[in-house]
Amino acid sequence: MSNQFRELLKKVGSGTHTGKDLTRQEAEMATLMMLQQQATPAQIGAFMIAHRIKRPTPEELAGMLDAYEKLGTKLTLAQTNTKLPVVFGNPYDGRSRTVPLMPITALILATVGIPVILHGGDCMPTKYGISLIEIWRNLGVDFAGLSISQTTNLLEKTGIGFIYLPQHFPEANTLVPYRDQIGKRPPFATAELIWSPLIGNYHLVSGFVHPPTEERFQATFKLKGINHYTTVKGLEGSCDLARSRTGIIGLGQPDGSFERLHLHPRDYDLDGTDLSLESTPQLIEQLQAVIAGKNCELMPSAILNGGFYLWRFGICSDLTTSFTEAESILTQGKVADKLNQLQSQITTNTSVTLSEIV
């Protein structure tokens, strides 16, 4: 048992009247001790549920991110890249109610030269929804098993990279079973939404559900010196905008200011129903139809999301133009070409690995 960790646990687990918040340095220390298994399983589980009840402060979230940055695998991009890369933070426990659009959005952005970094693991508690890695695998792109050098190479050549927890950050992956055992998302699930595994400058996009979470994000960004960010009240806490409701979006500006955007899909004839997630085979069929540029039920959602991010990242000067551009990219086969490039490059990376083993 770690006596040092026990003292940190006592601070967050002593209840409403005597409990105290951790400092940023203490939160980093506690996170490092859990990631490195210096704390016992009983201590780790107790910390997670106590901190879930207390709720993490921005200082504590910043400390958790400091620990993630010390131990987590990091990607780099060549200095010759002219467009600011984008890191998307989606809930690791996936989607269970609505169709995910992130792979389509990533392909659209990569098509216009914006590097996209995604991160996550396998099917995970507490939602046990379909994960991003599984969706990509069903689209013929298996990021699992790639070394960090191969992932970097893929990012450089195709514009899309994926940090896969079991492969690239096994310390964090060892904490996944606790999520099932405590039956709740731990504070790390919040930190994951605002974690970047990329070295250098980037634009961070984070999904959220509840307004207090977004407020914590903003305060944490200030502590971390992050000005390029976007917060999205998305479908199931993801970065996907809904067609069925007004999009509530936060726009962090380079000068440190913050602007609120309310995006009404009906203003652009893109409102409608958000498709339900019925099964994996049906989901993949729907995504493949969009990638093929077909006029299908999911196409307006793809245009809404792709167009918004094209505008947000400066590809188009206004939203009307950006939605038109997103539709053109899809219907002209450019997204399909990008997916083919990803599939081909994944095959090349795998072949190189096998030849090196032989």
UniProtKB/TrEMBL annotation:
GO terms for molecular function: anthranilate phosphoribosyltransferase activity. The lineage of its organism: Bacteria, Bacillati, Cyanobacteriota, Cyanophyceae, Pleurocapsales. This is Anthranilate phosphoribosyltransferase. Residues 6-68 form the Glycosyl transferase family 3 N-terminal domain. It comes from Stanieria cyanosphaera (strain ATCC 29371 / PCC 7437). Keywords: Amino-acid biosynthesis, Aromatic amino acid biosynthesis, Glycosyltransferase, Transferase. GO terms for biological process: L-tryptophan biosynthetic process. InterPro entries: Anthranilate_Pribosyl_Tfrase, Glycosyl_Trfase_fam3, Glycosyl_Trfase_fam3_N_dom, Glycosyl_Trfase_fam3_N_dom_sf, Nuc_phospho_transferase. It comes from the Bacteria. Signal peptide: none annotated. The keyword Glycosyltransferase applies. Residues 103-334 form the Glycosyl transferase family domain. GO terms for cellular component: cytosol. It holds the Pfam family Glycos_transf_3. Its EC number is 2.4.2.18. The keyword Membrane does not apply.
